[in-house]
Every structure is written in C-alpha cells, then in structure tokens.
C-alpha cells in the first residue's frame, strides 16, 4: 500500500495534479468526505493516518479524521477544503481496521464515522473547543454593562475561558450566545478555536554526570575537589551508588530518575541544584511508558492431564476448524489452557487478543498473565486513562505488545498479524455494546477480525450461549469439553431454600432465611469466606407511602427512583436524576414513607447489624467507580480481610477465591420470570456461574443456598444437576418452534419522541410498511417496552425476525434503512429518532 501511495504521489508531482483524500469523520453521516491534500503533505500522507480538518459552516469546528482513500478526483457537488494537518508519520489505523470499520457499519446498520469514533481512544482524537479571550486592543470599558465588566475582570485572571466555563461563571439562566455576540460586537473579546492533541506522553526528568566525569581520572579529581563541600560530595556519591560509572561509563548516559535523589533524605536538594548549575550534573527528559518496564519473573504453567488433553484437542480441532468452543465447567482451569495456547501462538511470532467481559475479571487474571508474559502483554479497558490506552494502541503498532488482554473495545486495536483470539465467558451480555452506535457484539466482531487475518478463535465458557453451542453441535465450530475441576475439587452442593415456608413460619430475619444465616455463621467460625449475590444495586428499589400508595418516580423516565442510603438520595438508574429523600409523602403528607424491596446496599447494612464483628464488603457499580476500586476490593477479599462479599452480577464472572465455601443467592425468581425469551438461558448461566465461585479448593465441597418462592421450578433442578445439555435440548426446541435465534436474526427498531402520539404514529407507520414487504410473521410490534419512557422520550419497539437461510439479509437491511429514512425525512416526523439494534439481546 505504501509503495502504491508513493507511486501515486510521484505521478501527481510530475504532472502537477492536485490530489485528494477521502476521509472518515467521527460523525453519524453515511458517507466519506473528500478533502484537498496540500502539496507539502503529499509525501507524508498515507492511508490510515490521522489528519485534522475543518468542518461545518465557516470552518467553525475541527475534527480528527482518518484517511480511507487517496486519489486525484475532486468532488463534483461541493468545493473540497484543505486538510489542516497530518498527525501521523506512520499510520495508526491499519488496513484491517478500515475493513472492519466498513463491515461493522454495513452489518450493524450505522455510519462508518460512528464506528471510527468509538474505535479510536479519545486520546487519539483532537479536542476542539470554542474559547474566548480579551481583545488586547480593547480600550472602551464605558461600553460594557456592569455584568460584562465583571466577566472581563474574571477573564483577565483566567486569560481564556471555554464555553462551558462561561456558562458556570455567568449562571445557567444567562443567554451565553447573546452575551458572546454582544462582547464581540463591542470588540471586547476574541473567539478562537483551541486545538490540542489529547495524548500527552508521560515524561520522566532524569539527571546524569557531565560526560567529562565519565573518565576515572576526572571523576576522582571532582571528588577530591568536593572534599571541602561535603554535602555536594555526598550527592555525587549517592548518584554513583545507583549508577556505578566507575565500573561502566556507558551507564551514565541512561542517567537516574531525579525523584530518586529528591526523595533521598541524605541528599541536600540545594547542593544538587548547585551541582546542576555548575555543570557537574545535567538534567534531561525521556518519554516513559505508563506501564512497568520491569517484567515480573517468568512463571511456569503446569497443566493437569485433563488440561493438557483439552489443549491438545483444541490444537487438533484448529487443523480443521477456525473456531472452537471450549465448554469447561466452573473451576476446571480454563485459564491455564488459554495460557498454554497463548504461549504457543506468541512463540510462533503471532499476535494474540484475549477478551474478557468485565473489568472486574481482568484484575485477577491480569496478575496471573503478567507472571507469565511480563512486558510482552498489554492491558486495554475503559478504566484506563486516555493516555494509557493510547500507549497500548501505539505499543501494538510498534510491536511492543504482541499479546493484549482487554474488554470488548480491544477488538479495535491495530493488530495486523493475529494468530489467536480468545473470547472468555463468551456467553456474557457485557460483550454487547448498547449505546452509542455501533451496537456491536465483540464476540462476533472478533470472529470477523480473525477471518480477515486468518487467525483462530477460541470461545470459552462453562455455560455457552445457545447460539454458540448450537453452532458447535451442527459442526460449524469445533467442540472440546473439560468437565473435571482443577485439582480434583468437586462441584458445590446446591440447596434450595423455600422462603414462602420460612415466611409462614416467621423464621426469616429481614431478607435472610434461617438456613442462610446459620450457614453464614458457621462459615465465619471456620474462618471461611462467603459470597452473597443480589442482582440489584442500591438500598431499596423504591419508596412508597403506606397510606396513599404514592411511589417516588423519576420525572424523566417511567421508572421508580432507587433509594441509596449512603448517599441519602433517590436515584434513577436510567438517566441519573437525583432527589433528596422525602420526610413526608408529597401527596398526602403522611410520615409513613417506607422503602420497599432490597438491593446490595441494604443487604450489606443488615449483615453489619446481624454480624457486628464480621467484615462485610460490597461490589457493585456504586462501589467500583474509581479506577482501582475493583483491584482493591478483590485484593482485600483474596487476602482474607473480608468475611462476606455482597455483589451484583460482577461477582459471577470468573473470579477465583480459594477460601470461598458458601454462596447465597437472593431473588432468584425475579431472574427466572423476566419477560424475555432468553430469561431461562440467562438465569441458568448467571446462577451456575455464581454457584461456581464456591468450593474451588480441593478436598472441600462448597455449598450454595438459593432462596426461592418456588423450589419446584424445572430450571432450578437443572442448575442443581449442572445439566446444561438438558437445558439446551429444551430451549433449542422452543427457539425453533417460535423462530428465535439461532434460527433467525433479530433486529430491534426503537422509535423515540418526546410526544407519545408522534412516537406511536411513526412506529405504526414503520411497522405497517415493513409488514407489507416482509410479512406479518417477521414483524412483531410496535409495542411499548417495560420502561416506556426514558429521558423524556416515549419508546416503541419493533422486532424483526429474519430467517438465517433463504433470505438475502443485506437486501432486507437495505429495505429497512430506506423505510427508516422515509420516516426521518417526513416533515411531520423530523424530530423522531430511531435506534437500530442488530442482533439485539
């Protein structure tokens, strides 16, 4: 590609022909934009490079764009603008990535700019912000109002203010555009566009001896000269203790991190400053990676016979199949098998991507992987800062990281030599992106990425998705099974607690059955740990008045507000709206306003009261917002500092604790009876996964207690028996009968508008047009979802079922898009928005 580009440019230069670039801009417009390439950029511009370009009326905004194509054909329907700046000497976006962007835009029915926008870490995109500063030529203060004069006084202190800063300073009620217009008209301020690249390399300041003193004679002379200045001599001696120049003079050029000397109590900082001023020492700066340069000791992975056999079977399957499913029960040691395969792939010179569904999982697994792979491994997830993610991105381009472990966004990294992709816990819904577009599934994108790079894909799970297991049973994927727990540990003993009986006998204490409380107490006496699972965060799902049945509801969404006791507030988990907790009912004035139901926060609070001497910790979205919160919680629990860990589904995903012998599960019925065709499958997956956290140490069987109102439910019996195949046989027949995945593809269209009638009108029209063309058997709805209003927009869902065989899916998607465009361009429906979710969950 580079040779082609150079040849193209050379011919252009010879003929003095202007050439152009088709660019991907990070905006939801279904097209590329053609820009003129300045002559001075001709030799450096390459496909996949980032550039800065103006966009919009009067070039009011700037964007980071990616070069998708180079040519010499000017656009026919508009005047091409010039590229402002080239950011990359070497492209940071590969040809494989550009192909991936195009495929995702087509498959997930979105714009290629939306794909690019979510693919590139924000640190690789330019920040463009309107700012204002005082006009240095302004000299007419009498023209200003009192408020404008106050504003300019503040502007003098700050030198420049952004639009958002102006809003905060002036107050939310101020018409900021009118204020700026007035000040510009009076020539008091200048509006400018501040452009900066967000990625800032981490610099380390170092110090080293002047090269003169690398010679032994000169160094001895310096030390003799400093005998009368003992503090300065001590600085030199401390430096030499870290950097033995007298033994190896070349070490001096690498220098010493200045902070080491600054933190040394025996070093006089003023003496160090004097030595630098007198040119004995010199300071310099180097770019330092944000990840450790020091690889941990290489640990050996010893596989059991069962693991070794599984690894060999996978490699044998890869000879015939590009995709293999590893179906291994919880605690069977799938991670060790993954490590063995990664070592083989890295050893052959290939790149490896290891996907995990949650950041919580990476905390434990990354430590294990680092012991084996050290600095060859990169880590990539959203809790990292922009700068850290950019360094991993650039590390993949440069070859520094041959192996990367990350969450779903890691599929966008610039790999160009993939040999293996591992998708751990492939059944997890966390792999699906819901907002914004593209609403992709990382497992499916990984499979396409591997196809283009001729890599192998290993899907791993104790409870595979029905779609994946069906593909394996049909022979489209390879299948390897691992049904023995690591170290001969046994699967836990699962017991059902009938809460209906306990409530009747009045043996329940708050949300806890007597059996669960007894088990928790016995577990603590044995100094063993417990995990309690409740898939609902907050203290209580809602507050209600006992006298008039008033319920605290979100003003923006059709949901009740969740009570959070620690924060002393009511909070909407959809839009983030917050309110103070009412003392009295706002409708009838009653003081009998009570919390109804329970979440993880309430369980944590009750446990502290029931077991005052125990150490209880909670792991949910509220307690893990900080960057290292996951790691801290897991380290404390792993270190035995915590007796009971309470959490949401975060604790179900692959965590491995030797000392956990008891798992308690609350509210199982709510999971099982959720109105969704996947409810049974997901209940089995979630309850089996969390049960698998118990008894992972050999010689001790764990116990799982499931609290339920109906112990006779078939799904619970399958969980007790760990009967995945029985579940699959029943569910796959139901799916086939009603034409649900894996026998069809699902596309959900969500129509949204602030006026319910308009939203319904648009949804009815869209559904009718689709039904006319595709048939009533393929179109369900429109129906209002469980939460019918979110952020003051009324929602209507249309579900489209397309058979996997004998249907031109591409043509169907094109037709759907045309009908959507008809709605969006209708004058009466222009404010309607339609969200397209392909392969919806």
UniProtKB/TrEMBL annotation:
Signal peptide boundaries: none
Binding site for Zn(2+) 1: 545, 548, 585, 588
Highest taxon in the source lineage: Bacteria
Domain (Helicase ATP-binding) ranges: 315-482
Domain Helicase C-terminal: 580-740
Binding-site list for Zn(2+) 2: 554, 557, 572, 575
Catalysis performed (reactions): ATP + H2O = ADP + phosphate + H(+); Couples ATP hydrolysis with the unwinding of duplex DNA by translocating in the 3'-5' direction
EC numbers for this chain: 5.6.2.4
Subunit structure as annotated in this protein's UniProt entry: Component of the replication restart primosome.
Functional note: Initiates the restart of stalled replication forks, which reloads the replicative helicase on sites other than the origin of replication. Recognizes and binds to abandoned replication forks and remodels them to uncover a helicase loading site. Promotes assembly of the primosome at these replication forks.
Protein name: Replication restart protein PriA
Native organism: Spirosoma utsteinense
Gene from which this protein is expressed: priA
